[in-house]
Amino acid sequence: EGARPDPLSQQARRTHASTAMVQALAFAPWGTRSSAGQVKARAASSGRPHAHPLRLPVASSRASRGTVPRWLVAPASATEGGKDVETERPEAGEAAEDKDEDPRFYWDAANLRWVRDKRGQPLSAWKEGGYTQIKPKTGEAYTVWPAVHIALTNRGLKSIPVEEALKMCQENKAIIVDVRPEYQYKKSHADPSVNVPLYRAVQGTTFFDQVKKLATAAMAMQATERNPDFGQDAKAVLGDEERLLIVACTIGGTLETKTVAQHKPKEFNDPEKAFGLESRSLKGAYELIEAGYENVAHLEGGLAMWDYKELPVTK
């Protein structure tokens, strides 16, 4: 029998490619960026490549009105009135070291990723300004991914392999909490498991809601938004559950930030995984902890790995 392809890499590529397209379609037109000439000029003057200072898409309008400090949403400098101006970032000599408990980061909208870099601002600065909560063009506000990653990492969230998760469920020591939308859960889910959707179908009718629906429909996907009642739904389904809550989604995601090179056994920091691999199950684990649940873990490899290992499912 021929070797089957790894479902994680295939599913992850498809999911993140779709996510990037949706983000680009939904947010890019409203971002604010420096021109290519300005970026090249800064790179030449500094003697090193310069990250494109595209601001947080959802915060760019607030930054232009002065309600958000520019150094929170751009790594080095900003454009004002068509001119390149210096921002309020501290001088390099004054910047604190990038420590695990208070790392520096910013949103690189040119590459649609979070960057962990000393050019950004520490998590404490984001929290002090109240900017860890982002209100998107559609749906409810949510916590930015780096803040979620840092909180889960500092907490020591465990990832449970699928075989171990099944054994724990059979021994009545754990319960799998599937945070995918209800329509996906009904189509197929791990057995046993319960469904507490972290996202729901887009219910708004604003211009941005319609753009999101059209963008996702073009890719044969359903437009979703954060479920504002996730905490209440969790309480209704789980009650005062004391067993281990193993949170699951399709791809699983990871908190790991290092990658092992294939050509030699050496770990290195992967810029694409500066804050692990974002997933709905990791966000769901964070929200469950915020809702008061203490005994929470994460399904390693997600339901893609569950299916790959041919573990019990209900369709």
Report on the structure:
There is one protein chain. This protein is of the alpha/beta class. It contains twelve helices and 18 strands. The protein has helices at 7-27, 36-46, 60-64, 70-73, 123-128, 145-155, 162-170, 182-187, 207-217, 230-238, 280-290, 302-308; strands at 77-80, 83-86, 104-108, 113-116, 121-122, 133-134, 142-143, 159-160, 174-178, 189-190, 194-195, 199-201, 224-226, 244-248, 258-260, 267-269, 296-299, 313-314. The strands form seven sheets. It has a five-stranded parallel sheet with strand order 8-17-14-9-11, with helices on both faces. Strands 4-3-5 form a three-stranded antiparallel sheet. Strand 1 and strand 2 form a beta hairpin. Helix 1 packs antiparallel against helix 9 and helix 6 packs across helix 11 (280-290). Residues 1-8, 20-71 and 74-98 have low confidence and may be disordered.
Q: Could you tell me the strand content as a percent range?
A: 15-25%
Q: What integer value in Å does the Rg equal?
A: 21 Å
Instruction: Tell me the span between the first and last alpha carbons.
Output: 26 Å
Extended strand count? 18
| Sheet/helix structural class | alpha/beta
Listing every helix as H and every strand as E from the N terminus to the C terminus, the arrangement reads HHHHEEEEEHEEHEHEHEEEHEHEEEHEHE
Uncertain runs? 1-8, 20-71, 74-98
In which order are the strands of the major sheet placed? 8-17-14-9-11
Q: Sketch the major β-sheet.
A: 5 strands, parallel
The shape is: globular
Give the proportion of residues in helices. Answer: 25-40%
